[in-house]
Design goal:
Length: 324
């Protein structure tokens, strides 16, 4: 099979298509023929080792020193179950599925194996392969932070960096949970934010949300441009700052802030849970959550997709179509 190999950290030019052995499902696993995957901001950060301040050494220790130990990147996919390992399970050959491999990665390939008990679900019939492939990264990240931040109905939520994969998912999911959403984005994406369910929109090129005199129950920062020192006054007493993209110095302040302020900072990696994948599938089937797709590239042009993601200008998700 063909797979995109990242054997050393660096620019997208190093990503190459290679012929590798097709995997076989072990006990409790399924073999999936991948029809679509994505290039997320997380994939780009792993491939380039462009990570928030203070995490370079830690990422090398966790992922590999000179390059990723798992050289096939990609964390989300849509495809069809081709074979089932011993012991069977809830999925069978021919099932159209989507899922999230998280740090196991491996989705930038024509085939992958995944545990039946993992973050895997039947593909909603009303979604294309491209849409299903883009459900997981933004959706599970938003759900993880909302859960840890105890987002509840009636909360006033501001999302800084609302036009990315996580932001566009967060706007829709927060609306589902009954929060009043204020989306911060560029001029070009204001109408999109409204269409996704944002009650209020702020054009960051025209206005600094920290100077509008309003305070929020929850601020979600997906862009890494709203540290606590900048937006503290915009948080209500008991407010929570969800730092989706946080550097190490900011994370080290979390215990001190908890002791000295009546406000909370929440950071750390989001984990894709099987129950979250099933919830996203259910909401997609009901038309209550639909991933936003910016561009699509064939697998052979995946380096170009990485270059585009690296610009930081994508809106929603960048999809890769996989031809077998």
């Amino acid at each position: 099979m063909q797979a995109v190999i990242c054997d050393q950290y660096g620019p997208p030019d190093g990503l190459q298509l290679f012929e590798v052995n097709k995997p076989a499902p072990e006990r409790g696993e399924v073999l999936i023929k991948v029809d679509a995957t994505t290039v997320s901001s997380g994939d780009w950060r792993v491939s380039s080792l462009n990570v928030p301040r203070g995490f370079g050494l830690l990422m090398r220790l966790a992922l590999g020193w000179h390059g990723p130990r798992q050289p096939i990147l990609g964390t989300e996919f849509a495809g069809v179950v081709e074979a089932v390992g011993a012991d069977g399970g809830q999925f069978k050959a021919g099932d159209a599925v989507f899922g999230f491999t998280d740090m196991a990665m491996g989705c930038h390939a024509q085939y992958l194996c995944m545990p039946q008990s993992g973050a895997l679900a039947l593909k909603p019939a009303n979604l294309s392969d491209a849409q299903a492939a883009a459900l997981s990264f933004g959706g599970t990240t938003a759900l993880s932070f909302f859960r840890r931040g105890q987002l509840k109905r009636g909360d006033q939520l501001l999302i800084n960096g609302a036009s990315g994969a996580v932001g566009t998912a967060a706007v829709q999911l927060a609306k589902h949970f009954g929060a009043e959403v204020t989306a911060v984005c560029s001029t070009a994406n204001l109408a999109l934010m409204k269409s996704l369910g944002a009650t209020h929109v702020i054009d960051y090129t025209q206005q600094d949300f920290t100077k509008n005199g309003k305070a929020y129950d929850v601020i979600m920062d997906t862009a890494g441009t709203a540290p606590f020192a900048h937006c503290e006054a915009s948080l209500k007493v008991g407010g929570r700052l969800l730092m989706v993209l946080a550097d190490l110095p900011s994370m080290l302040k979390i215990p001190w802030i908890a002791l000295t302020r009546r406000k909370k900072l929440i950071a750390g990696p989001a984990k894709g849970r099987a129950e979250d994948i099933r919830l996203l599938a259910e909401l997609a089937e009901k038309g209550q959550f639909m991933p936003v797709i910016d561009r699509s590239y064939p697998l052979a042009q995946i380096a170009e997709a990485y270059r585009y993601v690296a610009t930081g200008r994508k809106c929603g998700n960048v999809v890769i179509t996989v031809s077998n």
